[in-house]
Sequence to fold (191 residues):
Amino acid sequence: MKNIVLFGPPGAGKGTQAVKLVEKYGFNHISTGQVIRNEIQEQTAAGKKVEACIARGEFAPDDLVIEIVKHFMATHQDVEGSIFDGFPRNTYQAEQFDLLMQEWNSEVDMMLSLEVPEEELVTRLLLRGKESGRADDASEEVIRNRIRIYNEQTAVVADYYAAQGKHVAVNGVGSVEEIFERLCAAIDKLK
Fold:
């Protein structure tokens, strides 16, 4: 079982690429952002707690995200592997994730980090906001706040996995297919 963290700032293309990787490799895909949005739509207790945070462009609380991932891992053990999209978001989550993986005699095999310049991210997210209606993608101010929080709190996770020899930077600019080919080339080296 391969476990891959698909990493990058908001708008880097993690969700788009994760779908393609799932199709090619048969991995499970957990998008913590989508899971949380589903919780909000269903107005669960957890969804109500994080709704205000997301509206401000902030991330969901660590303990909630970790619990979501733990539940996912518990219910998806008989698979080729998993793509984790949007998790972990900080060093604490990465450390807790390593502990979770150890419980299942597994580990994160690789972090694929999509590298995209900030102005490209803003352009992509504003376009996605128009197409999807997502409130957190409709305001340039909220988008820039999300990118700022990513740079301050999340980018350091790459250092955590680099220290383990698991970080692979991937150019996230180009066509969806070009980026996909770069990701596949990195994954294929795991075999």
